[in-house]
Amino acid sequence: MVIRRPLLIALSVVGLLVLGAYAWQASRLPLVPALVERTPASPVAQPGAGKTGAAPVAVEVQPVRARSMADDVTAVGSLVSNESVVLRPEVAGRIAEIGFRDGAPVRKGEVLVAFDAAVQRAELQQAQASLSLAVANHRRAEDLFARKFVSQSGLDTAQSQLEAAKASVALAQARFERTRIRTPFDGIAGIRKVSVGDYIKDGEALVNVEDIATLKLDFRLPELYLGRLQVGQRLEVTSDVLPGERFDATLDAIDPLVDAQGRAVQLRARLANAGNRLRPGVFVRVRLILQSRPEVPVVPEEALVAAPGNIQFVYRVDEGRAKRVEVVTGARRGGMVELVEGPAVGDQVVTAGQLKLRDGAAVSIVPVAAVAAAAD
Questions:
Q1: Average pLDDT, stretch 143-161?
Q2: So where are the chain's domains?
Q3: What is the pTM of this model?
């Protein structure tokens, strides 16, 4: 019997479909696990085995220390001269003499600028001559009155003439002194703005004088600190002019008026300026110590570990194991943190290696270099 070609093709397709279905079904069957012969030399590992024998974690520790801690507030301010004045003449005149060098120290009462005072000097001499005559006349009148040659009225006239002559001398002396510009206090002269021969009008600026042996410090603080401010509180002052140096100052005055716009209170402190190293007008940073608390437990900042929920804790080392202790922190100063609640002074806390620690884990105290090597 002859099989037709279309029928042959149909049978071949059906056969391929059957073979494909069989192969797909065979691939879904699970493999038969091989038997593994267990020998005493290779025991089956049990869950949790080996934890108690884990190697200690290398850590660095430091003791909780006791040190003084201060509650403070920082601000910025400017330095001001203890005394500052711009010398100005009360009368017009021509400068005849300048008695100082720019930037040099001057003493109280020293004549810095002298005007041409020929007229005032002549008036003073005239008044002094009149005074001498009035003194002689008064003595003569007293002598004649004692011998009953002059009446009481004549003596009174001589007395009034004497007083008038004294007043004339005082007036001439005052006019003469107005031609002499004197420094009102010890200080340092500034840079003069005039020269010998200049004609100066009354009230024109001549030179400034600054007392900088002691400096004033003006700064502001928010009004919320007003209740904690007291005259006499200590300040620490730093400036970019002398980097790395600190200067002690004392709160000297508190302005009774609070700025209504900025809600700040104006403060003034005072500090000694040994060697005139600081100058008025310099920008400074101020740290005002509101309260000092001695013997406060502190730890390095690196000992703190943050946890979810705004929680902080440290690891305290006790008998070779790390114990997690939650802490409440306070002020921070110079890399140290105050412990309001937590380990006591003298307890050892971990400062490096906390990432590999768990509560109750065994620890091995090693130097800093060893901890870094173990972390690497």
A1: 86
A2: 57-67+295-375, 73-82+209-293, 91-115+180-205, 117-178
A3: 0.60
HEC string of the chain?
A: CCCCHHHHHHHHHHHHHHHHHHHHHHHCCCCCCCCCCCCCCCCCCCCCCCCCCCCCEEEEEEECEEEEEEEEEEEEEEEEEEEEEEECCCCCEEEEEECCCCCCEECCCCEEEEECCHHHHHHHHHHHHHHHHHHHHHHHHHHHHHCCCCCHHHHHHHHHHHHHHHHHHHHHHHHHHCCEEECCCCEEECCCCCCCCCEECCCCCCEEEEEEEEEEEEEEEEHHHHHHCCCCCEEEEECCCCCCCCEEEEEEEEEEEEECCCCEEEEEEEEECHHHCCCCCCEEEEEEEEEEEEEEEEEEHHHCEEECCCEEEEEEEECCEEEEEEEEEEEEECCEEEEEECCCCCCEEEEECHHHCCCCCEEEECCHHHHHHHHC
The class of domain 117-178 in CATH terms is mainly alpha
User: What class has domain 73-82+209-293?
Assistant: mainly beta
* Between residues 32 and 98, the one the model is more confident about: 98
- Matching CATH topology for 73-82+209-293 and 117-178? no
